[in-house]
Every structure is written in C-alpha cells, then in structure tokens.
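[step 3/7] inverse_fold.run input=structure_tokens len=279
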C-alpha cells in the first residue's frame, strides 16, 4: 500500500508537492479550492504547470483532490444543492487541469427527508459532474461516521447509491476513512474485525470500487457516530490495527492517505510511522 497525506497548498498549489516530498509521501491529497467557501479563485495556469511538472519529477501518485466541506449532494435546499452541483463539477474540472486522478467528496445529509428521498439528488449531482468531463477522473464517495442525518455511514447505503448509476461503474468509486468506519460502528481495531469488514465490503460493493483509504486513528470510542481524527496509534483504534491494514493482501492496490493532526506543522511523523509498519 502506498502511503501519502493531505498536505497544505499555502503559497501556491505547487508548494504542496514540496511539502509532500519533505514528509516522505508516496501519494498526495490536496484542496484545489478553499475548503470552507463556495467562492473559489481559478487556478493560475502558470501555477498549474509548475504543479504538474513537480508531480512528474516526484513520482507522487495518485494525485487526489478533496472537495469543499460545504458540499451536500443530497441537500433538499435548492440554493445549497445548486451550489453543490456547481462545486462538484468545478472540482472535476480542476482535477483535469492539474492531472489529478481522483476527486473525493463527502456525500452530505438528507436533512431529515430520509435516505431514499436523497438518492435521485445524489445521482443527478454526480452524473452532472461526470457528464462534462471527457477525461477519466473518478469521483470517490466518502463514508461518514453517521452523525445526524449524514449519508454513507454503512456499506448498504453506499451500495444503494452506486446502484442508482450502474452506467458509471468505471467513473464512480469509494473512499473509506478508518476513523469514520470506527465512528459508524465497524471494528477496525482487530485483525478479525478488519477481515470481516473487507469481506463485507467486497460482497456488498466490490473491492474493485475501493480506491482510497483515509488512514486516521480516532479520539472517540467505537460507534460514537462522531468524526474526530487522531494521530496514528494515539487513538482508540490503535497502532496494531494499522499494521494489519497497511499489510493486508486485499488492500495492496489501495492508496492510503493520512489526514491526522499535523505534528510540527507537517504529516511526516504519521507517514513515516505507517511506512515503517509495512512488512
């Protein structure tokens, strides 16, 4: 399993490549737009060129974009939904502009309207973003910890969403977050639990649809329904679980991305720890 991290783009998109390399990353995830705003400045073509050149020289792969936190693919609010559809399309366009392979997005919340009522909105948002893309960028739907009315905390919900757009099997995949799995009640702290989880995912969705693993420990107990990332080995999941995950034969083609709190303003410590856990 390749190990990378989410890194800052402060000072320019191209600076993220330097930070990733300095932290020992083998892959990279970034925000290509302000994660807390609907307003996103265009990427300067000169900066995009620098970024792509540095990626080529670095061998960092894959390049992953994470969408803004504001997106809600299931929103029943028309204004928010329209902004979400635009932002997801924009993220795919930005991915194409900088040669990113994946766009990871949170699915959102049905706001009390019910899961079934949200399926058509999710499908429309995703298919609309893909329809305007002539490249092979994949949208990856990320699981959640299950707080409130958020969608995607169970493999059943993720499977039902994917089943609404079978024609896009090659363009839509899944990103699983270990802290979110833990918060949703899945046992990712033991070898048996991890084996059962992988078998269940493969049966319900298919391991071929899993492209990215967000490797995060959790501050809280299992089934808390809350998302609180912790540094690897310092949370409730524990370091031995991550040893199992990074060495699991079924996950060797999956890319691991660290999203833990920075130590000394960089992800180096957790990246190196996970790399050292690999057999």
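[step 3/7] decode complete -> sequence:
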């Amino acid at each position: 399993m390749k190990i990378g991290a989410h890194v800052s783009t402060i000072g320019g998109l191209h600076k993220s490549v330097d930070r990733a390399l300095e932290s020992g990353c083998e892959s990279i995830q970034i925000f290509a737009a302000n994660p807390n705003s609907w307003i996103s400045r265009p990427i300067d073509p000169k900066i995009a060129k620098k970024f792509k050149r540095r990626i080529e020289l670095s061998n960092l792969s894959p390049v992953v974009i994470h969408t803004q936190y504001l997106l809600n693919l299931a929103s029943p609010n028309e204004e928010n939904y329209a902004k979400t559809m635009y932002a997801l399309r924009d993220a795919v366009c930005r991915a194409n502009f900088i040669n990113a392979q994946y766009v990871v997005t949170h699915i959102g919340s049905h706001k009390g309207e019910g899961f079934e009522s949200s399926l058509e909105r999710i499908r429309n948002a995703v298919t609309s973003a893909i329809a305007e893309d002539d490249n092979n960028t994949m949208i990856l739907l990320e699981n959640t910890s299950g707080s409130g009315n958020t969608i995607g905390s169970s493999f059943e919900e993720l499977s039902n969403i994917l089943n609404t757009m079978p024609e896009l099997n090659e363009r839509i995949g899944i990103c699983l977050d270990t802290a979110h799995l833990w918060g949703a009640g899945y046992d990712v702290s033991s070898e048996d639990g991890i084996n059962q989880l992988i078998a269940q995912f493969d049966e319900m969705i298919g391991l071929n649809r899993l492209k990215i693993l967000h490797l995060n420990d959790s501050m809280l107990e299992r089934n808390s329904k809350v998302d609180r990332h912790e540094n690897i080995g310092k949370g409730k999941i524990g370091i031995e679980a991550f040893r199992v995950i990074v060495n699991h034969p079924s996950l060797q083609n999956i890319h691991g991305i660290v999203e833990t709190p920075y130590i000394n303003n960089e992800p180096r410590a957790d990246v190196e720890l996970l790399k050292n856990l690999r057999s």
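[step 4/7] annotate
The longest strand covers residues 172-177.
The chain has a mean pLDDT of 96.
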